[in-house]
Amino acid sequence: MNQIVVFPSCEPLARTLLLLGQENRICARCHVDEKTKILVVDDDEVVRRSHLRSLASVNCDVKAVWDGTDALRAMAEHPFDVVLLDLRMPGLDGMAVLRTIKEKWPESEVVIITGYPTIETAKEAVRLGAYDYLAKPVGPDDVINAANGAVMRKKWALHTERTNRNEGTGCSAGSRWTTSNHAY
Q1: What SS3 class is residue 11?
Q2: What is the pTM of this model?
Q3: CATH code of the domain occupying 32-156
């Protein structure tokens, strides 16, 4: 059996993947991959470029936009797995964008990254369904770890939904049968 090497900060996520039987999704850097679609929304070009560079290092599919209106337009064209979202932007603010994303695309995870953190906005973001709330400045590892966690939360939600759907058929996890009556 191949030895799996992960960064210490990724270890809890790796354990979850192993439990889900998806050890092939574990890499030495993180759990996002080229199939993971991430949208970066920030009006500060330096921040956008920094996040793009960080996420490019893990080879995910990443796009960046500068405001909330462009973010919702991008989501409508092709929903993203994870959205890294600033709060203070021209036009639609981040909280309005978060609200709309969770209403229209509830399977997408949102990470708030703000230069103006407050307890009130953190509580509101979590209440609206944000996965995480980070205060700027954030480093490359912070961005990658937040994206990893958001991807794992999404995968766990999908796994749980499938499990619940299967259990709703009257079969327990230990006694599922195929049509040929062989347990699997």
Answers
A1: helix
A2: 0.72
A3: 3.40.50.2300
